[in-house]
Write a structure and sequence with these properties.
Layout lengths: L26 E3 L5 H11 L11 E3 L8 E3 L2 E2 L21 H8 L8 H5 L1
Antiparallel strand pairs: 1-2, 3-4
Length: about 120
């Protein structure tokens, strides 16, 4: 069984534990094969050193209903947009996330800089 958890700052959803008991939560893999969509996901997450690679996921709590084709299938260009960053301080200013990702390849699995170019 894959042990999924959400990489959004401040989100504690995991495959074995969700914030609201009984709620169905789906975990969506980062769009590693779609560089432009991946860029938009990483910018939305506002993380200084985002964990990127196979198996990294964002839970359904961070998507709006119009992001889905059917119940748990995201549209190809869907980007997470529901966040509560009130309890999280990354020290990141708008636009800085992607430049940090591309410049610091050491923190990226599967050479994210190559994927995003």
């Amino acid at each position: 069984m894959v042990r999924s958890f959400c990489i959004v700052p401040g989100c504690s959803n995991a495959y074995y534990r969700v914030k609201v008991s009984g709620k169905v939560v789906h975990f969506h893999q980062l769009p590693m094969t779609k560089p432009e969509v991946l860029r938009r996901w990483l910018a939305a997450l506002k993380r200084k050193d985002p964990p990127v690679g196979p198996g990294r996921r964002v839970c359904s709590d961070h998507f709006i209903p119009s992001n889905y084709r059917i119940t748990n299938r995201l549209k190809p260009d869907a980007v997470p947009s529901v966040f509560d960053f009130s309890g999280y301080s990354s020290g990141i200013v708008e636009g800085q996330v992607l430049s940090n990702c591309v410049q610091d390849g050491v923190h990226m699995s599967h050479d994210l800089a190559a994927i995003l170019d």
